[in-house]
Amino acid sequence: MRRTLIALLLAAAVPAFAQQQPALEPIPEPPPMPAGSELDEPEVTILKRGEDTVAEYRLHGKLYMVKVTPPHGVPYYLIDKEGKGQMVREDSLPNLAVPMWVIKSW
Q: Which domains does the chain show, CATH number per domain?
């Protein structure tokens, strides 16, 4: 009984394996980038000040963020939010309220 069932299942599966693969076409080349639309990537300068590692992020030559990584502790960020050159400290962990639902209690 089991041999007959296995033989029937194999016989039903053979046509699926016998199908031919479709002919694949090459992927066309992407169009060229328009002139004057360069990607805005920040320039990152990594400095060692004392024992701290300081990474300065600049966009178009203007400093907008500084990441300070102390040797022991959590890194923190100094961000120029208004573009006036005044840096405000932001901790690496945002003030995010994580949802905590009770799934089961007894």
A: 43-104 (2.20.130.30)
